Amino acid sequence: MTLLGHGRYCDEIVAQTELLRTLIRGADLAVEVPTCPGWTLETLVRHIGGNLRTVETAVRTGEAVDSPAEQVAELTGPASHDPAAIEAWFAEGAARYVESMRKAGPDVQAQVWGIPWTTLPWVRRGLHDIVIHRLDASIALGVDYKLDLDLAADSIDELLELFTGLQAMGAIPKLADLRGLGESLLLVATDTGQSWHIDCGAEGFTWRQGEGRATVTLAGNLLDVLAVFYRRQPVTSPRVQVTGDTALLDFWLDRVSLT
């Protein structure tokens, strides 16, 4: 697996932020987001912005940020529901995030929410939080979603790495359910030829890029595989093909899903 690089991740946060701002500008922020039950577009934007400000605070100050509500200024954004004010708050937070990340470089330690990462995985996580929530906003507004294919592939890599690390930390109890008896899952991007193989062993799951025999296979264009993998499309979507044990795929995705 090859990372896209710290500088590219920073550049893409700028680009993805602008794409999301353009998407929501003029939209009704009270519109519900079906892929994030209970959320509106306003909730979604405040969620992303709060995450960016939380991580930026840790990077800039060098202090662990484990209680954002007590440690992060302007965490949830403006008190009003004014769309222009919310967009400006979001844009400012994203700009600060990128500025602090570029200044720090890829190797500075930053602890957030009890997770002690360096800045490279944090900037990568920040990017893909925006990437996926822009998909949510696109679905909510009924507009087409486009994403560079290398970013889409990196989104799958990043999610698998994220949950592999959280599994090792014991941070999410439900990940213990993914211990298995040799079951395996295969993701296949039919348009790019990329694939991801996931094994469920006695100690938990492991993964690698590449093909292999699988208990269940999810195949389709990369963006559709990404959407199903993130629970933004159902496994029954006509845009993908599932062969084998569909119940295993559902079970696995239920435990690695992110809002």
Automatic annotation (TrEMBL):
Domain Mycothiol-dependent maleylpyruvate isomerase metal-binding, chain residue ranges per copy: 12-137
Superkingdom of origin: Bacteria
A cellular component term, taken from the record's GO annotations: plasma membrane
Residues in MDMPI C-terminal domain copies: 150-250
Cross-referenced InterPro entries: DinB/YfiT-like, Maleyloyr_isom, MDMPI_C-term_domain, MDMPI_metal-binding
GO molecular function, one term: metal ion binding
Cross-referenced NCBIfam families: maleylpyruvate isomerase family mycothiol-dependent enzyme
Protein name: Uncharacterized protein (TIGR03083 family)
Organism the protein comes from: Allocatelliglobosispora scoriae
